Amino acid sequence: MTPPEETVAVSSPGTDSTPENQLHRNSMGVTEICFFVVAAAAPIAGMTGLVPSTIVLGNGAAAPGAFLIAGIMLLFFAVGYATMSHHVTHAGAFFAYVGRGLGAPWGVASAFVSVLSYCLVQTAIYGFLGATVSAKMASIGFSMPWWFWCLVALAIVQVFGILNVNLGAKVLGVLLSLELLSMIITGLAVLFHGGGPGGLNIAASFSPTEIFKGAPGVAFAFAFAGFIGFEATAIYGEESRNPKKTVPRATYAAVIIITLIFALTSFAIISGAGSADIVKKTLALTTLDGTPLANPAQLLFSVAGTYVGPWMPELMSWLLITSLFAGVLAFHNSATRYFFAMGRSGLLPAKLGTTGRFKTPVRASVLQTAIGVITIVAFALAGLDPVVTLFYWFAITAILGLTFIQGLVCLAVIRFFRETRADTRLWNTLVAPLLGLVSIVIAEYLLLSRFGLISGTAGTDGQPWEMNFTGWALAALPFVVFVVALGYGFWLEHRKNNDDELVKEFVS
């Protein structure tokens, strides 16, 4: 009798036919996958962007507690996600999981929302990267517009997108190690000094009563945003060594690492600056030309300069650039593997589902680069700000879309194991996924209700759910795409029932 795991396991569609639609097998382990996933979280970028915003607009000194709770909540999701990875190995992780659990049309819809979200977030980070590099280079006398640096980065990322995936993992490993080391040194320096004014006030940052003071909804919305990209572990399943073990381990490791980075480093920053009146201190440090939070990096840089030395902020200013570059490279890989999987499965042109000399999805990679070029050029010609519009608009929209699909994954995991009985562990297949679903629903509500505030499209009063037309259009985008793609999925399923070979291998 065939073991249950083999009965439900999914090899990559089309891999039995030709080598042109196979990725580079056995090329990545837990460490390499973690490099891609943690790099997508862009730790220093998060410390310089998310943390000050969470402090000022959210719950003040208790921002680290919000990141800690968000990480714990996402661990519930990770349990079911990792359990599913034992039985489904596919480069289009979300849409394969949802398709197997809820049915092919739902998988198709998840695929389009996922690839939309990855394209949006990668382009958003390009905007942030271009603005950051432009300002840094101008400070040393080499002034070029933000879009120029975006196009330079696009060209470099395209090269890595074609070459062996292991090369990209090694580059990300070096960049990520450097930025983590800089934050560890800063954190230890604060710790050895016993903190700043007020010392190391653990209660102010991690006490439940403090965490839920102020505007905790805003704090948690920002906190969940910090974890974007952690789900990409399963995307590399086909390229990993022993994916049934590698993917679950990488998933747990990624969530835990990101949680610790944000919770502990933000605690060190707040302790170094002084937890008392941290909101006023953050505003004083980050206000530029009368605009609050216009220069958020100064909170981290100020603490690093005070406790380590003036050389650390200078180093961190360059590591911020490499952190953002690592982020765009990581999300480029995620998006291209979705395009590849969708092409291979018949949802997009079949040529996207082929690989090149290094067993990487070259055509899908070029398509992703073309999308980036068109978007950046369009924003540049329109004279729109790369941070205020391109970054904030697209990043929060992407997070909204990916969070929605994560909720569907939780439902798919529960239904998959209820029907197949491939794994009967109650915690892994029902309890944890249900807790994960509750966490995702809460996160989605918080993101939606604060969408205008986070995206910069809020009305004059800045109240929850208040947005201008642009805000509502952006917030609706992932759901509109989902509904349209769901209809496309049902149409494909109907064609499959009529023995159409085009979609047979995906929906069979």
Secondary-structure content class: mainly alpha
- Into how many domains do the coordinates divide? 1
User: Which CATH architecture?
Assistant: Up-down Bundle
* Termini separation: 22 Å
Share of helix, binned: over 70%
Order of helices and strands: HHHHHHHHHHHHHHHHHHHHH
Looking at this protein, list some descriptive labels.
508 residues; mainly alpha; 21 helices; disordered C terminus; transmembrane helix; transmembrane; AA-permease/SLC12A_dom; APC_superfamily
Explain this structure.
The chain is mostly helical and 508 residues long. It has one domain: Amino acid/polyamine transporter I. 72% of the residues lie in helices and 0% in strands. It contains 21 helices and no strands. Helix 2 (30-40) packs across helix 15. The longest helix has 36 residues, at 104-139. Mean pLDDT is 87; it is low at 1-17 and 499-508.
